[in-house]
Each structure stands twice: as structure tokens, then as C-alpha cells.
Amino acid sequence: MNLRKYLSRGDSSFVIDMTALVDIAFIIILFLGIVATLAPVSSINVELPKASLKAKKIEPIKIVVDREGNIYINRKKMTEKELLNYLKQKKEKTVVVLADRRVIYENVVKVMDIAKKAGVEEINIATRSSR
Q1: Per-residue model confidence as pLDDT tens digits over 108-118
Q2: Model confidence pLDDT, tens digit, residues 21-78
Q3: The pLDDT of residue 89 is above 80
Q4: What is the pTM of this model?
Q5: Domain boundary assignment for the chain
Q6: Which of 84, 87, 78 lies closest to 60 in space, CA to CA?
Q7: Please, which residues have CB within 8 angstroms of residue 79's CB and are 6 or more apart in sequence?
Q8: How many Å apart are CA 31 and CA 127, to the nearest integer?
Q9: Half-sphere exposure (CA, 13 Å, Cβ side) for 69?
Q10: Three-state helix/strand/coil letters over the chain
Q11: With 70 as the cut, is the pLDDT of residue 87 above it?
Q12: For residue 94, what are the β-bridge partners?
């Protein structure tokens, strides 16, 4: 669009209206200010102290209960008393129970009770994903 033909040669009072541009700029600044205050803090910088020992990965004790209710640890069949004594001797306080899906529920509860009596703090039941 040629604006020169609308201007007279001697008229220097030509002004471009900037109010719409200023309004849009103000809205954008307001939006960014609101969004910046609502954004959660993604991380906190913490400088951790150094230690001379490496962290030891603790492997949980795996207790297998088969369909008949037999109890195994490391492929060794155990009685309930042997299981209790074994768990009392171990320092690990985490147990994973791998029970057959067809096992009587009472047998799994017995194993969990024995683990609690032995001082186990965390008992997990292993499952398989449904994929």
C-alpha cells in the first residue's frame, strides 16, 4: 500500500498508531510474568560432601514359594524354622516374596509373618507386568 499519495508534500504530522502494539506487548509481558511465578522449581543445587567409602548396594533376600507351599532361598528348600533362623542371621532388612500365582494365600502370609518375626523391615511381593 502506497501511503505517500495520501500525504501531502508539506504535511509532517503523519503518525503511526502504536496503541495496539503496546497492548499486545503488555499482555505478553504480563503472561510471561504470571507463568514464571507458577513454574515449579525444577532443581535445588546442593553440594554433597565426599566420603571415603563407596555405597554398598544391598540386594534383597528373595524367598520363593512354589505351588505346593514349599519355601526356597537360593534354590535351597527350607522349613519355616530354618527360614526364621536364616532371616535372623542376615543383616538385610528387605525381603522379596516370589510366590506362584496358584499358591494358597495362607502360605504367603506365613512367610510374611516369619519375616516380620525375624526383624525384616520391608516385605515386597513380586509380580509380573501384564504386557
Answers
A1: 999 999 999 99
A2: 899 999 999 998 888 777 666 666 666 777 777 766 778 899 999 989 899 998 999 9
A3: yes
A4: 0.56
A5: 61-125
A6: 87
A7: 71
A8: 47
A9: 10
A10: CCCCCCCCCCCCCCCCCCHHHHHHHHHHHHHHHHHHHHCCCCCCCCCCCCCCCCCCCCCCEEEEECCCCCEEECCEEECHHHHHHHHHHCCCCEEEEEECCCCCHHHHHHHHHHHHHCCCCEEEECCCCCC
A11: yes
A12: 122
Of the pLDDT bands very low, low, confident and very high (cuts 50, 70, 90), residue 84 is very high
Which residue type occupies 1?
A: M
Q: Which three cell numbers stand for residue 51?
A: 566420603
What are the cell numbers at 14? 503523519
| CATH number 3.30.420.270 is the correct assignment for the domain at 61-125 | yes
